[in-house]
C-alpha cells in the first residue's frame, strides 16, 4: 500500500531509509511515528492488541522449542549474519536512529556499532557457554553444571537507545537458545521495525526459525501483556525507575525473572589533582552529549573547592560554544529533546533548581533549534547542596555542581542518591582513584577513573544498583541471565553412596 506523503523533508528522508532497510509499512494505524528534529509526523503504525501479543509469544515459544535443539555455535551463525547485515546497513540504520531519537549522526552510527560489537561478542560466546565441573564427595561420581536455553525473553526498551539495548539482549538471548519478543518505546517504533527486518533477513539466510525474533508495538497494555505472560520466563526492561517498579512486581507475582536497567543519577568527582583539560572534555561529552538523554548521562559534578572556580569557568566556556541544532548537520553536537514534555521537564527542573538556591552558570533556557522540535541549551547550575532536584533524574542536559573539601564527604554525597548506575572520578592521585573503585567508594554498577560515566563499551557487564534495578546486560557473564542452570550428578560406579553419609536401604 502507498504511504501518505510525510509532512517534512526529515519524514521523507526516514521513509527512504526504511525502504532501503527492507521495512514495508502499511497505511494507517493509531501510533504516530515522528521525528524530534522537527516534530513532524513521519508515518503511522498499527499498535498491537494484547491478544496479538499473546499470539506473538505463542509463535516465539514454538520457535524456541526448535531453536533450543540447534547447537549453540550454529545459533551463532544467525547472530553473525545479523552482525553482517548491520555492517552493511550501518549508515542507514544510524541515520534512522538520528532521525527517530534525535541524537547526532556520529552517535547514531556509534549506536549501530555497539550492536555490531555485541553481535561479535555473542558469536564468540556461542562457543563458550560453559558450566563448571565440581568436585563431588562420592566415589565414582561426577558433578557438573550445564546452562540450557531459557525460553522466550521479553525485551522492553526506551527511546534513547532505540536499537542497541535490544541488541544487547537479543544477540545474547539468540546464542543462548532463546526467542525474543520486543516491545520498543512508542517513540521509537520505526527503528525497531528496521531491526526486525534485518533479523528476519538473517533468519531467512541462515535457516533460523521464522518467529525467533518478533516486535510488538503499542502503549502500556502491550507491555503489560508481555510482562504477565507465563510463557516469558525473563523480562528485560530498560527505562525509568517508575516503569521498573511497575514491571518487577508483576513479573515476580508469577515467579518470573526480571533484568532491570533503570534510571541513573551519575556523578563525577573532580579532585584537586585532576587534569582539567581532559576532565572538561570528559564532562562535557557525558553531560551534554545525546542532549543529556542517556541513562549514563552525567548529572552531578562534585568538585573540590580548590579547583571549583576554574572548572566551572572552563565548563561554562565549553558549553557556550556547543553547536545546537539538527542532529543530521555534521557540525551539530547537541540535538533536540525527544518531545515537548521533555522540554517542560527541563524548564521545571531549572526553575526548581533556582528555587532551591541554585545559580545558573550556563544555558538555562530554550534554543530555537529547528522549528517544530524541542531544543534546550545545555545547562550548568551551581547548587548550594544536594537538594531534591539534584536527587532527581531529569532526562535533559542539566549538570548540577556541588562542592566538597574532603574525599570522604565527596563519596558520601556521591552515594546519597537513590540511583546507582554509573560514576567517575577525575584524579591523578592513585589513593583517591583506588578508594573510589573500592568497596568503600562508589556504590554504582560502573565506576570509572579519568573518563566520564557515559559511553561504556559492550565487553563489560552493564547495569547498576539500588533504584537502577540491579540487572546486568552486555558483556562479562551477563549471558547467564538468559539461560537456566542445571546441576547434574552422574554415578558411573556400581555402588550407591548417599551424600552426607546417609545410610538407607
Ligand atoms: C542507555 O542510556 O540506556 O554507556 C544506555 C553508555 C551507552 C549505553 C547507554 N553504551 O552510555
UniProtKB/TrEMBL annotation:
<protein>
    <recommendedName>
        <fullName>aldehyde dehydrogenase (NAD(+))</fullName>
        <ecNumber>1.2.1.3</ecNumber>
    </recommendedName>
</protein>
<dbReference type="InterPro" id="IPR044638">
    <property type="entry name" value="ALDH7A1-like"/>
</dbReference>
<feature type="active site">
    <location>
        <position position="261"/>
    </location>
</feature>
<dbReference type="InterPro" id="IPR029510">
    <property type="entry name" value="Ald_DH_CS_GLU"/>
</dbReference>
<comment type="similarity">
    <text>Belongs to the aldehyde dehydrogenase family.</text>
</comment>
<comment type="subunit">
    <text>Homotetramer.</text>
</comment>
<dbReference type="InterPro" id="IPR016162">
    <property type="entry name" value="Ald_DH_N"/>
</dbReference>
<keyword id="KW-0520">NAD</keyword>
<dbReference type="Pfam" id="PF00171">
    <property type="entry name" value="Aldedh"/>
</dbReference>
<keyword id="KW-0560">Oxidoreductase</keyword>
<feature type="domain" description="Aldehyde dehydrogenase">
    <location>
        <begin position="34"/>
        <end position="486"/>
    </location>
</feature>
<dbReference type="InterPro" id="IPR016163">
    <property type="entry name" value="Ald_DH_C"/>
</dbReference>
<dbReference type="InterPro" id="IPR015590">
    <property type="entry name" value="Aldehyde_DH_dom"/>
</dbReference>
<dbReference type="InterPro" id="IPR016161">
    <property type="entry name" value="Ald_DH/histidinol_DH"/>
</dbReference>
Amino acid at each position: 500500500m502507498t504511504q501518505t506523503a510525510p509532512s517534512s523533508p526529515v519524514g521523507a528522508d526516514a521513509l527512504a531509509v526504511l525502504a532501503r532497510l527492507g521495512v514495508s509499512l502499511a497505511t494507517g494505524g493509531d501510533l504516530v511515528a515522528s521525528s524530534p528534529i522537527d516534530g513532524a509526523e513521519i508515518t503511522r503504525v498499527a499498535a498491537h492488541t494484547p491478544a496479538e501479543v499473546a499470539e506473538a509469544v505463542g509463535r516465539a515459544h514454538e520457535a524456541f522449542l526448535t531453536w533450543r535443539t540447534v547447537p549453540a555455535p550454529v545459533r551463532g551463525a544467525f547472530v553473525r549474519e545479523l552482525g553482517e547485515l548491520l555492517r552493511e546497513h550501518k549508515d542507514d540504520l544510524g541515520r534512522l536512529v538520528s532521525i527517530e531519537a534525535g541524537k547526532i549522526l556520529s552517535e547514531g552510527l556509534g549506536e549501530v556499532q555497539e550492536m555490531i560489537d555485541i553481535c561479535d561478542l555473542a558469536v564468540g560466546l556461542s562457543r563458550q557457554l560453559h558450566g563448571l565441573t565440581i568436585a563431588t564427595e562420592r566415589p565414582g561420581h561426577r558433578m557438573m553444571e550445564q546452562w540450557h536455553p531459557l525460553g522466550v525473553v521479553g525485551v522492553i526498551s526506551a527511546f534513547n537507545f532505540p536499537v542497541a539495548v535490544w541488541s544487547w539482549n537479543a544477540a545474547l538471548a539468540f546464542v543462548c537458545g532463546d526467542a525474543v519478543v520486543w516491545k520498543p518505546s512508542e517513540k521509537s517504533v520505526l527503528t525497531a521495525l528496521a531491526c526486525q527486518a534485518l533479523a528476519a533477513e538473517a533468519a531467512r539466510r541462515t535457516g533460523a526459525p521464522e518467529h525467533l525474533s518478533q516486535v510488538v508495538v503499542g502503549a502500556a497494555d502491550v507491555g503489560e501483556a508481555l510482562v504477565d505472560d507465563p510463557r516469558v520466563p525473563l523480562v528485560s526492561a530498560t527505562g525509568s525507575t517508575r516503569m521498573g517498579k511497575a514491571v518487577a512486581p508483576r513479573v515476580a507475582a508469577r515467579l518470573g525473572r526480571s533484568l532491570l536497567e533503570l534510571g541513573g543519577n551519575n556523578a563525577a568527582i573532580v579532585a584537586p589533582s585532576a587534569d582539567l583539560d581532559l576532565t572538561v572534555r570528559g564532562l562535557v561529552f557525558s553531560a551534554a552529549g545525546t542532549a543529556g538523554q542517556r541513562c549514563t548521562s552525567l548529572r552531578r559534578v562534585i568538585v573540590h573547592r580548590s579547583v571549583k572556580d576554574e572548572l566551572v569557568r572552563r565548563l561554562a566556556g565549553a558549553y557556550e560554544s556547543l553547536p545546537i541544532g539538527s542532529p543530521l548537520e555534521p557540525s551539530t553536537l547537541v540535538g533536540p529533546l525527544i518531545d515537548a514534555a521533555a522540554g517542560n521537564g527541563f524548564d521545571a527542573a531549572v526553575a526548581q533548581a533556582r528555587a532551591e538556591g541554585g545559580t545558573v552558570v550556563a544555558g538555562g533556557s530554550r534554543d530555537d533549534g529547528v522549528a517544530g522540535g524541542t531544543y534546550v541549551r545545555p545547562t550548568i547550575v551551581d547548587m548550594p547542596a544536594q537538594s531534591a532536584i539534584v536527587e532527581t533524574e531529569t532526562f535533559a542536559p542539566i549538570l548540577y555542581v556541588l562542592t566538597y573539601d574532603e574525599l570522604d564527604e565527596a563519596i558520601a554525597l556521591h552515594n546519597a542518591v537513590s540511583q546507582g548506575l554509573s560514576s567517575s572520578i577525575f584524579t591523578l592521585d592513585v589513593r583517591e582513584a583506588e578508594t573510589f573503585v573500592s568497596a568503600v567508594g562508589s556504590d554504582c554498577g560502573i565506576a570509572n577513573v579519568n573518563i566520564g560515566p557515559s559511553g561504556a563499551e559492550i565487553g563489560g557487564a552493564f547495569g547498576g544498583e539500588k533504584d537502577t534495578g540491579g540487572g546486568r546486560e552486555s558483556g562479562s557473564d551477563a549471558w547467564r541471565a538468559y539461560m537456566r542452570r542445571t546441576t547434574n550428578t552422574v554415578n558411573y560406579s556400581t555402588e550407591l553412596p548417599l551424600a552426607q553419609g546417609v545410610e538407607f536401604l
